[in-house]
Amino acid sequence: MKSLKLLPLIFCFLCLSCEDALNCIIPKEPELPNKSFPIASTENYYYADLTAEINNEPRDDDYDYFYDVDGLPLGMDYYVNYRTISIEGTPESAGTYNFTIYLDVDGPFRGFDNDEPELLCDYSTQKTYTLIVE
Known about the structure:
134 residues, alpha+beta
């Protein structure tokens, strides 16, 4: 029975190159953090931010980060400062809002010595967050 549990791992090593097999075990991909956003108010300016990273990649500063956000309440917008995205503004209506942050990365371009770039397992991710407005 133990040999059946190792079968996918053995298959990964036999069918893929060594580097691809390592990516199979330790994936390199962009990640948005788990975050609980503070409660917002229709009477006050709101600000919160989060910073993305690339899992298992020590050079995640060498990538370019591209964000898009869908579902923010009216009166709020997002601003990007490299790896950090800020959600800010004064929401116009109370309620519970689910918004999705989409992240695409590209690169690395700086500090690159090889002829062939190291590839990520995935170049995009998304995560849905909840914002409560009172």
